[in-house]
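User: Can you predict the 3D structure of HECT-type E3 ubiquitin transferase? Sequence below.
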Amino acid sequence: MFFSGDPTSRKRVDMGGRSSKERDRQKVLEQTRLERNRRLWLRRQNSAALKIQKYFRGRKVVEAEHAKVREHFYQTYGKRCKNVDRHCFGPDSEFLRQLIFFFDVRNLNDISVLVETCRLLVNFVQDCAGDAVGLFAGMDDTPNHSLVAYRLKRFSFACIQAIHQNRNQLKDQLLMTLEESSASTTILLQALLLLLDPKLPWACKAVGYLMQRNVFSLFREVILTVKANINARGSFGKISALERVLALVISHVGQSPCICLNVDSQWSFSSQILTIPFIWKLFPYLKKVFASWSLTLYYTNQMTLCVQNHANLLPSDISNEFPGYACLLGNILETAGAALSQPDCSFEMALDLAAVTTFLLDALPPIKLSSRESSTVGEDDMIIGDEIGELVLDSNLEQQIISAIDSRFLLQLANVLFGGISAICGSHTEVPDDKEVAAVAAACSFLHVTFNTLPIERIMTVLAYRTELVPVLWNFIKRCHHNQKWSSLPERFSYLLGDAPGWLLPLSVFCPVYKHMLMIVDNEEFYEQEKPLSLKDVRCLIVILRQALWQLLWVFPSAHPSTGKSISNTSAHKRHPVEAIHKRVGTVVSELMSQLQDWNNRRQFTPPSDFHADGVNDYFISQAVMEGTKAHDILKQAPFLIPFTSRVKIFTSQLASVRQRQGAHAVFTRNRFRIRRDHILEDAYNQMSALSEEDLKGLIRVTFVNEFGVEEAGIDGGGIFKDFMENITRAAFDVQYGLFKETADHLLYPNPGSGMIHEQHLQFFHFLGTLLAKAMFEGILVDIPFATFFLSKLKQKYNYLNDLPSLDPELYRHLIFLKHFKGDISELELYFVIVNNEYGEQTEEELLPGGKNIRVTNENVITFIHLVSNHRLNFQIRQQSSHFLRGFQQLMQKDWIDMFNEHELQLLILGSLDSLDVDDLRCNTNYAGGYHSDHYVIDMFWEVLKSFSLENQKKFLKFVTGCSRGPLLGFKYLEPLFCIQRAAGIVSEETLDRLPTSATCMNLLKLPPYRSKEQLEAKLMYAITADAGFDLS
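Assistant: Sure. Here are the predicted structure tokens for HECT-type E3 ubiquitin transferase:
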């Protein structure tokens, strides 16, 4: 009863929390389960063995029976069918029954028998004047119809099997014609042509049987063997027997007498044959047959129903450069033009064709022209099914697709789709009907995908000027907008948009095509003739585009702007097509709105506020300043949505931020210039060119030296630098210096002949670009009116014909005369050359390689006009503009300049062109030294200043601020505010005889307390016109 010290008597405790009995139970259950599985596996193994043995014994018996029947056949008819006559093909003969029973495509003897049988068949049918029915069914074929049909469909399939099985041995015979009847392949194919004749009563059953046995997959492998065997003999230009058989089979399917069952789309003609690369080059007759309206309608409709769900089932047995869907697309497009040109081509076929080609085009990677003529999206990953991999198409396949979507095809497609749709807008309240919605959806879906995939330059002009696309789309868009009801896409195109708004797809096509029209149309057509749209319609369009763009860029959460690059057809876009189309529409609408704004700036037809979004408020502006925000991205992509004054505030705040950061790092590193007033350009060039980019952003202090070599009085606190900037820019951009020229409107642009005057002219243009950028960087307005076409170079934009009037109005008139010339332009003896005349030296340049031998005709006159415009507006000043831009971008970031169009950029440089607003200056003036706003001297001063001419008012402003122009947004933004200080404490004759002085660094006027208005006016006029530099300061 007491503890003995022996631990063995302790109770065992399982630390796992389970008893040993429970543990043993689990072990028994596991062993039982394993034993049960083992017995199940043994039963399955035994069952499988029994099935294998049963199959083997069955096949062995069948083979034995085949051999027995084969031997009997040879004894009866002979190995070479010597004992066969025409009666052997009748319903009562055992000849065909036995042959079909024992025929084995792997047995060469059976193949020989089959070939000999086909030879006899062809001869017998010819002997009985083509009466195949009488040969096979006898005089009364009704009781034997099913038996005959069964035998012949099996016999037909045996012929195809024989060709397929021995395709490598017979590869030299596969392209032979029927005339070469000695070849075994030709004999088999000729027999097929006889058996599948659509006039025969069993033809439908025979073709249906072949379809069920996936005969097109066998034909595919035969054709690929032909393509691989480049030495295949055949009569090229003639129709081969194989081509005739294919044409016969595809012509039967889908025709009105046909009762064949629908074949699995994976094994159809479209999936198996049309996915062979360049099939029409091999079989041109087959192409002609397929291009018939009825066949194209049937097969296109068949592809429409299956291609979207079974694209991943298309064959991929050739190479990665020839994906099945790309080959299918190329072959369909190559025949589509012929089918669309048929007089009985239906609207439904055009819809089906657009649906199929749209889906297949959408699966393609972006294609570039081999000559790199056009810039499209970059190469990216491609998604087929669930796999992602890089895909590069064969160049010939790319060319087939590009060449097929030509002007003829687009015209035919547009004519069929829009044939019954009016391009003239009727009642605004009329809602588009189902046919119009289907036509617009088909055209827009096809073109949207085409724009994303193919080089579009060659087709844009056709779409813009030779089809009714723009008026039809505009009519549709305007009515939908007026009724606030956008019809949803038909089901076959719905995968492109999902639940996205219905206006996305029409705008994705309308905007780039209309934008292309605006690049070609001239000013008279747009403003006077109001082509292609009336100005009223353009105003309505601006409203629609503005609202759509705001929805895309600000309202829709998924539509984050894409700035700087065109939308590419990437793998991400394949996975997210709705987001992709959001981005694309955002881009094309922004580009069109920007172009319409340019047209409005040339000649205003709508208030500038029509371009401003309604949702821009103080919160938006505060967000736009911060990088990485949606508002900032909108500012970069669509700055016209934001009022000009708001963008100027953002711009000035960005500049102030950079100056503040630069000043914090360079408090003690000031650059000091010593400038001789009579050598201001040379001194500024030498000293500014020596500064680095960081130094240019820092403070620069200037000391002027007068004509006597004496430094002028005055310490530069910023005012002298402003005076220096105004003087240097006036001198550097003076046309007398030879770097710039003036237009008829006295606007400046680079002198194309500047190199003939200055050896280092390009270095000077770099310096002038830096100089202008420094003025803008410091917020200094300069009186330099640049030509708009030159300002576009600061935005890295291209100039077009519409910009030419500002440079050479006479040349523009001549080009417009050519554009509208009704006679034969070739009689004018014009060639693709242009004559340059600089300083009396004439040079001739070709506009195209060999241009001196290319005569201008009615066909190429538009090209000539735009090449001339390009030469004058872009090519001649390309070097000067490029170096100017490099210097300009040392201080001015591209993002800053892109916020403004050319006309707004002009205002940023030289300020408002209106007269100086004296009332605004008075409202934003401070007073010191005893003066106040109601002081009698102050009242006299404002009366005198108001009485000054504009020129003298600008001189006064330069006298007190160092700059002859006020701040762009008004004197409220003058830093520091203008101040008038009393110049003397005690009034005396000596005091009253003093002139007004200024401190331009503080925008300060020191004004003595003159007693009369006349005295104040005389003294002030003398001070501002003395041109004494800073000696009076």
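The CA atoms of residues 686 and 767 lie 10 Å apart. The first strand starts at residue 381 and ends at 384.
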